[in-house]
Amino acid sequence: MRKLPTDTLPDSTGSANSVTPPPACQPKVGPIGPKAGGGVKFTLFVDGAARGNPGPAGAGAVIQDESGRILHRIAEFLGHCTNNVAEYRALQIALQTALKLGAEEVSIFSDSELLVRQISGDYKVRQETLRQLRLQVDDLLKRFEKFQLTHIPREKNKEADKLANQAIDGRKNDFAGRPGDRLPGSRAWGEETPDSTGRDGL
To answer: Fewest C-beta in 10 Å: which of 56, 57, 170, 174?
Structure first.
């Protein structure tokens, strides 16, 4: 898997604490460790996109410090997968990056209600690929002293969405096949066809 260049220049876009979750989808708060309250706190905005569902896919994320300063942007091409798999992979990559940057507590914002409700336990995860990704994400979350996962409207997640689509655009010239063809050298994550509701795993 090849990662596209990421922009690590500081940015002043305002604190993520200004984002208010919809009342219908309350945040999931994770376990609190012995050092809770004094750890390094980051805010993560994550999004995944797949064109064709399944199709060429990308992961996007923005990592901010407590003041809202952007520490890291992620735009990673994922190969061929479904949109739901891309959402999980975006979260997974963002968590891995946050750990490398020294985060001890994370507040995560995603516009995927499916992702948030599956991780919170509100929705069952029936699709095997998503079950495996869910387990991997859970393992990463356990490495933080504290975490909070919140669903937000799509318009509040524009930067992460833009990065996910940039990751796809950066590889689009490498794919000139027919619909359903794999991209050369890509991993075929989650090639299952979503159900008619678009909410596979429910």
So the answer is: 174
Domain boundary assignment for the chain:
28-173
Among 89, 91, 73, smallest CA distance to 81 is for 89
Alpha-carbon distance 28 to 112, whole Å? Answer: 14
pLDDT of residue 10: 33
Residue 151's alpha-carbon distances to 26, 28, 109, 178, in angstroms, are: 8, 9, 6, 35
- Alpha carbon distance 73, 67 (integer Å): 16
pLDDT of residue 100: 97
Distance, in Å, from the CA atom of 106 to the CA atom of 66, rounded to the nearest integer, reads: 10
CA 185 to chain CA centroid, nearest Å: 22
pLDDT along the chain (202 residues), means of 10: 38 33 45 50 98 95 96 96 98 98 98 97 95 98 97 97 96 41 36 34 38
- Strands (E) across the chain are located at 28-29, 41-50, 55-64, 70-81, 105-110, 146-151
Return the half-sphere exposure (C-beta side, CA atoms, 13 A cut-off) of residue 1: 16
Q: What's domain 28-173's architecture? A: 2-Layer Sandwich (3.30)
